[in-house]
């Protein structure tokens, strides 16, 4: 695999951390952003970056470009939740999730695309969720933000595909995290009944799919939605 400069937003924990670790393991030059500017995996450059602030993102890119070179692969992973039923959901609950998960991805992709177009090469990978297409009670805001990433990737593909860029979506399902580990066993069992594979995914399983999409073998794949959900979202 060709060594690339890779940026993962929100790479200081969870799936983003695992993605960054996988790219480091494969020998890439890896940077991650976090709001605090700390917390990334060993071997990665961690910079301060807030996806809700264009100036912050621009400064983060400038720091990364200075240290590692132009960003060739961007993984828009940073996201938040504000889960509650729609009748209880405030406009702030909705707009904050959209601003981080969707507009945040736009800010990052727009800044990354400048260097990618100049190089005539780029990999854009947007981290969505199974609920983006399946839906989730209490997640009108989150589901909407994650579904919109599909339209973003496909529009980017039509707009920039002839310039050497690909744009794809990875849609994880239930993942083994500290949060799922704290759920009561009965609730975990109920969730697993809905998953044909009968288990939660590991963050590493998501990371390996992301890394493959960024690699040389996936150069003709663009506008795709790749589920990593054990079959939970089939047909959606």
From TrEMBL:
<comment type="similarity">
    <text>Belongs to the short-chain dehydrogenases/reductases (SDR) family.</text>
</comment>
<protein>
    <submittedName>
        <fullName>Beta-ketoacyl-ACP reductase</fullName>
    </submittedName>
</protein>
<feature type="domain" description="Ketoreductase">
    <location>
        <begin position="4"/>
        <end position="178"/>
    </location>
</feature>
<dbReference type="InterPro" id="IPR057326">
    <property type="entry name" value="KR_dom"/>
</dbReference>
<keyword id="KW-0560">Oxidoreductase</keyword>
<dbReference type="InterPro" id="IPR036291">
    <property type="entry name" value="NAD(P)-bd_dom_sf"/>
</dbReference>
<dbReference type="GO" id="GO:0016491">
    <property type="term" value="F:oxidoreductase activity"/>
</dbReference>
<dbReference type="InterPro" id="IPR050259">
    <property type="entry name" value="SDR"/>
</dbReference>
<dbReference type="Pfam" id="PF13561">
    <property type="entry name" value="adh_short_C2"/>
</dbReference>
<dbReference type="InterPro" id="IPR002347">
    <property type="entry name" value="SDR_fam"/>
</dbReference>
